[in-house]
Structure formats: C-alpha cells, structure tokens
Amino acid sequence: MKLVRRWRALRHRRIQSALAIAAIATAVVLPVVLLSVGGGVAQHEIHALEHSGYQVTVSAPGLHGVQAAHPLASRIDAIPNVASASPVLSAALDSFPGRGGSSPVLAEGVIPAAFSATEGPEELGLFPRPLPFSDPGDLRFFANGTYQGPPVLEAMVSSPFADAYGVKVGDLLTLAPSANATLGQRFTVVGLFGTPASALGPIAAFAVLLPLSELQQMTGVGAGTPGSSIDGADTIQVALAGAASTDAGAIRSVAQSIAQIVPYYGVGALTDQAAQLRASAAVLTGFYLALSSVGLVVGLVFLALVLLRRVESERRVIGVQRALGVPRRQIAAAWLRSSAVLGGSGALGGVVGGIVLVAALARWGQGAVAVAAGLAVFDPITLGELVLGVLALGSLTSLLATRAALRLPIAEALR
Amino acid sequence: MTSSPPRLELLGVSRTYAPGRPEEVRALNRIDLSIGAGSFVSVEGPSGCGKTTLLNLLGLLDVPTVGEVRWDGRPLPNRRESERAALRLERVGFIFQRFYLVPTMTARENVELPLRAARRPAAERCERADELLREVGLTERRDAFPHELSGGEEQRVAIARSMANRPGLLLADEPTGELDSTNTESILDLLTRAHRDRHLTVVLVTHNPKVAARAQRHLTMRDGRIVGDATDPIGA
C-alpha cells in the first residue's frame, strides 16, 4: 500500500520525477561503463599475465636489445626450476603472397621447441603443438654460434593472413626486410596459427612465425662479423617447471639467478607485473570514480533542485500536514523516501542503462572499443556500492528539502 | 474517546507581521477574549480584519507577538513547534475554505492522515476512517481521489479528517466559502451535529451571516480588534 502511494506521489509530478530519475541515471551510466569496461580490461590483462606459459621475462633497453640470445637462453635453461627459456624477436617484414603487391606482416622469430614450452593456456589453442618446423632447436642454420648452416626457410602464417591471401600449407611465401622482393627469401609455409583477441583488437592479425636465427639474419641483428654476431632478441621468456611456476618465491629466486647472469638487463617476474597492474587498476578505478563524481554531483544537484521545487509546489500539502500536527520526523521521512525513490530509480536505471550501453558497444562498436566492451565485467558488489552511494548522497540532498519543508510558516503555506 | 473541549483565552494578544519594517502589519491588536468549553462561536468581519489570524492563534498554528494564549487556564507553549504540533494532533481539528486534501491520497487515506501521524494501528485507522466517512455520507466514495470529488464531497472528507483524532476543538475557516447553498447547508448540518453530539468547542470564521447564524455566540472583528460580541439567548 505504501508503495502504491509512493508511486502515485511520483506519478503526480511525473515530468519532474522523470527528469530527476533521468539526471541520476545519466550520471550513473558513466561510472558503470568506466568501471565495468576498465575493470574488465584490467582483469583480462591480469589474467593473461597470470596464465602466461612463462613467469619471468628478460629484456634489455633499445631495439632488439638482448644480445647473444641463443647462448643466454641455454644458460638460463640450466638454472634450477627453469623448464624452458624462449628468446623472441619481433620485426616488421614485407610479404609477397604471390598475387602481386606486398603486405606488411609482423614476424616473430622463435626457437620452436622453446616457444612451445612457454605457451600459456590461451596460446595452446592457437598454435599446433609441437610447432611443425623441421628444426625445433634452431640449430641447423645457427650452427656453432655462427649463421653458416643451411637455412631451413620454413614459416608459419596467421589464419587471417592465410585467409586474406589464400595461402595454404606447402605454399611458398616470399618475406623481405623491405618492400623490395629481390631482397627476400622464399619460405615454405609449414603451418597456420590463430591470433588472440585482446583489448586492443586482434594482435598481429597478419603475422608470421620463423626460426629465430633466420629472422635475425634477415633483419640484420644476427649478421655481425663472423664470430662476433650480436644474436639479438627483444625478450627471453622463461617458463618454470611444475609447482615452481605457481610459487612466487621460486619465481623470484629464478629471476634473481638470471639477474646475476645479466645484471644490466631487466628481469621481471610476471607475478610482480600482475601485482603492479592490479595496483594500477585500483588507481584507475579511483580515477574513474573521481571523474564520475562530477556527473554524479550534477545529477544530485538536479535532484536537490527538483525536491526543493516540489516543496514549493506542495507547500499547501505540507502546510496541511503540519497544521494537522504530523510530526517533523514523519515529514522528514517522507522527503527522505521521495529522495530514495527518485535516487534509487535513477541509480538502477543508470546501472541498467550502463549495461545496455556496454552491450551495444560490444555488439555494434568499432575495433578496440568493441573488443574492450566485450571484456567488460559487471561486478555486482561494485554496482551495489554505486547504487548505495547514490542513495546515501541522495538522502543528503533530501535534507535541503526537509529543511525547507519544516521551515515553511504554516499560516503562509495555507494562504 | 473525544478529548475534552478546551476553554480558550486570549490575554492582550497582538500579532504583528514584519515588526519594525516599513511593511509592518498589525493583524491583531491587543485582543482579550474568552471562549467557553463546548461553545459554538462564529467570527465575522471584512477581509483583512484578522479573523484567520485569530483562528491560527487559537489553533496553535501561529504564536502571538505580544500577549498569551491559554487553554483551560494554562499558557500554551509559544516557542516549541513540536509541542504545539502534538497538541494540534491530539486536540484540534481544522477545516479550511479550500479543503486542502492531499491530492495523491484517496478520501479514506486523507481521513487516515491524522491517525497515521498519531501512529494508530492500521486496523484502527481503517475502522475509524470508514466510520467517519459513513457519518459524512461518503462510504461509496472512499476510494476516490480529491480530483474525482465535488467541492461539497471534498469538504465532507475534510470534516471527516478533522474529526479523526476525536479533537475537543474544531476550527473552521470559511468552510462553506467555495460551496453552493445546498452543500453549504449540508456542511453546516455536519458541523452543528458534531458540536451537539461530540460537545466540541467550535470556532467558525465566515463572511456569511447565514452561516454565522448557526453559532451560539457571534464575534465581529474590524481592524484587528473585536468590535462585537453577541450571544444568542437560545442558541443554535
């Protein structure tokens, strides 16, 4: 019965009520979108870090800064608890798929066996295991620390690339460090791999995977003078074995052991990076809330104005209630309820609106926006706290209306 | 049970609005008045003579600038609105010219309003509201909203509301001012019956001599003063 009366009271001033609810809802949509999308992206990235196939990364400043990558990976392999160390080199190449013209591709140079050993759960579905290279250890061309062996000239290509250019396993694909095909080499396509979704769109949709040494040679980071090659890589991904891979202490211990070998390189444990990302996400959440508070304040000021306007327009009803002797606390409670109904409806509307907006972005948005929206996470606790916060602030705004109602001179209100 | 009708006294009461300012208005000017318990008094006079201000002071809606209002010989609290509100709730019923029903409430809910304020149990509220609506002949209209009622019906709901907490004092400010002659008679009959059956003190402000004729005692005001005070030899 009380609810029916509340609803009738709202309906009585339906335009004011609708505007107040709309103002609050609009103000709530922003934090819902920011928190759900921002939180979802952060969670996705943290999850990706925590579920990588490797737990430690070694990197060095500068382009392809890790030098002597092959022997360094071997030394890291020898550290207790290390399952595999996988040097990775990334470079942009030009491909000539055979229909005339060229297409840029992201090339990843890896030691196939080591790369497989450092694949995470998400990559397992993307790459065949083992990788179908005929030289899994990248030892044939990079023989005895030189680039004198017979080149393998095998490559894997990403499915989007293969689909776009009709490339099949067994085809020959020319890859070159520049748009000049005569500088390139012809690689046999030995397999395809998928590309992972990411908050920033599909990573390297057009990509190829090569033996590390052949990419080094092609891009010039392996072509030093004989005997003093730089054997460059961007990073070395280190996977720990068994239980050690989930033991933060063991991970730090391995990282320290690597740092002793290459004290001038950056050695990072992914658990620490995940912790840093989590801390950054928390800071970002605070920033989102601070940003959203501006909109919320505007919405609540509007609510306060609507309530004050309502006091003015209902001065006779208030005057009658006070003339009849309705206690102040009952009048205050009525205004508090009005504020709660308007604020609560607005907050719930905002939550629903935010969820719908995020779903729409995920469905019809473009590129990275759609991917980020697709990763959104709607945490019921966070959304509940948001609604409660609006209700609490709304009740504060009702104090203004209550004060105005209780200070209304009865005789004047009844004139 | 109906609260006992109070004996009302005004001792040297003045009410000045905006005192000390250029727009100062003295609505009541040193009024001395005594109204016996259970009497039916009309207050007549031209617009702006202070009738409503007098009613507001008697009903504790306002406080005098100077002087004292007493109920049963006891001075009333001038300062604390909460005390005055509690007294109004328990002992005073108000009827206004424009009815002032709450538009979002049905007739029954309007009658229940003072009972709800007094925190009466729901069953008692329902029973009492139905009883009062029956007395004013609106049983069939109890679920109607004010905008669905005629002026006469609205005022009858307002009378039922004023009786809800069984007050001892009923204050009516131009209760028939917006009604036609048929409804006026009907409303006056209800007020007269309430005074007779419930032994209420009734103070009725009106412009209309025919309405005032229902009272036993007739006060006439002009310029904030009582200039006439006559009592019927037989009474209404």
Key words describing this protein structure:
heterodimer; A: alpha+beta; 14 helices; 54% helix; elongated; B: alpha/beta; 10 strands
Descriptive notes:
The complex is a heterodimer of chains A (415) and B (236). Chain A is of the alpha+beta class. Chain A has 14 helices and nine strands. In chain A, a hairpin with a 6-residue loop joins β2 (82-96) and β3 (103-110). In chain A, α2 packs across α11 (328-364) and α11 packs across α12 (367-374). The longest helix of chain A has 44 residues, at 270-313. Chain B is an alpha/beta fold. In chain B, 33% of the residues lie in helices and 26% in strands. Chain B has helices at residues 51-58, 81-91, 107-117, 122-135, 151-162, 181-198, 209-212; strands at 8-17, 25-35, 40-44, 66-71, 74-75, 92-95, 169-173, 201-205, 217-222, 225-231. A six-stranded mixed beta sheet of chain B has the order 6-7-8-3-9-10. In chain B, strands 2-1-4-5 form a four-stranded antiparallel beta sheet, covered by helices on one side. In chain B, α4 crosses α5. Chain B is globular, with a radius of gyration of 17 Å. Chain B starts with 7 loop residues before the first strand and ends in a 5-residue tail after the last strand. The interface between A and B is medium-sized, with 20 and 28 residues.
Rg from alpha-carbon coordinates of chain A: 32 Å
Please provide the count of β strands of chain A: 9
Rg estimate of chain B, integer Å = 17 Å
Uncertain spans of chain B: none
Major sheet of chain A, described briefly? Answer: 6 strands, mixed, barrel
How much of the sequence lies in strands of chain B comes to 25-35%
What string gives the helices and strands of chain B in order? EEEHEEHEHHHEHEHEE
Question: What level of helicity do the residues of chain B show?
Answer: 25-40%
Morphology of chain B: globular
